[in-house]
Write a structure and sequence with these properties.
The protein is of the alpha+beta class. The protein has seven helices and eight strands, in the order H-E-E-H-H-E-E-E-H-E-H-E-E-H-H.
């Protein structure tokens, strides 16, 4: 087949628009500061003890994870040391204003060539759940993914039975894309996975919603939100 014929082959078929194929950057050991706290590269020396204090005794946090709960402090810190050494998933600690690490989240399934990445392995202590910092941590990481690292697709996946994670994805502005049936075997049980994503063209509106929700005037004197993030994202 000639080059000319090859270039004309399928010329009448629909194809996707051209995109910048420059690979995205891999996650780095950064500290992302916010008003309520920060998201920092996991460092067992700085974060290990406070994470153990925040997460120990709360076995339900690990129900939908492929690991945990850890038996004791030694096992937990050993597991955390292994996690810190990984490049994918790449672990970050969520740190409150008193400098205590109170949760974990990661960038995982990192594909710089396709410019896709997932946020996952999210473990939030009870003290972090349903707080402005929990939302701010998602905002800081999403902003870093789109604006600094240059990804075009940001994914969220969860066990389809994990109602809390399902609701959180929608609240944060991820679009539901479907369920992969019999996707995984986790702790000896079948898992169907719900897939969500946010893409680069979604980000300006999602960023505006996050920032409007996090603004000081969105909270009353008791710290209660005036307008919900779900409402700002217009998620039905």
């Amino acid at each position: 087949m000639t080059r000319a014929a090859d270039s004309e082959l399928g010329a009448d078929l629909p194809i996707g628009p051209p995109v910048d194929a420059t690979p995205a950057r891999r996650p780095e050991a950064v500290s992302l500061a916010g008003r309520f706290g920060s998201v920092e590269r996991l460092d067992i020396a700085r974060h290990g003890e406070s994470l153990w204090e925040a997460l120990s005794g709360h076995d339900r946090l690990w129900t939908y994870m492929s690991y945990g709960p850890l038996a004791d402090r030694t096992a937990f810190l050993g597991w955390l040391e292994e996690r810190q050494a990984l490049a994918d998933p790449f672990y970050y600690a969520v740190v409150d204003r008193s400098r205590r690490a109170v949760g974990l989240q990661t960038l995982v399934a990192i594909r710089p060539d396709m410019r896709t990445v997932e946020v996952g392995h999210i473990v939030l202590s009870p003290s972090l759940q349903r707080t402005p910092l929990a939302t701010e941590a998602q905002y800081l990481l999403a902003r870093y993914v789109f604006e600094t690292l240059g990804y075009r697709r940001y994914e969220w996946k969860c066990n389809a039975l994990n109602a809390a994670s399902y609701r959180a994805a929608l609240r944060f502005g991820f679009a539901f894309e479907g369920v992969f049936r019999n996707h995984m075997i986790v702790k000896g049980r079948s898992r169907d996975s719900a897939w969500f994503a946010m893409i680069e063209t979604d980000w300006p509106a999602r960023k505006a919603a996050f920032e409007r929700w996090l603004a000081p005037d969105n909270f009353d004197a008791a710290g209660r939100q005036r307008t919900s993030l779900r409402e700002l994202n217009r998620v039905d």
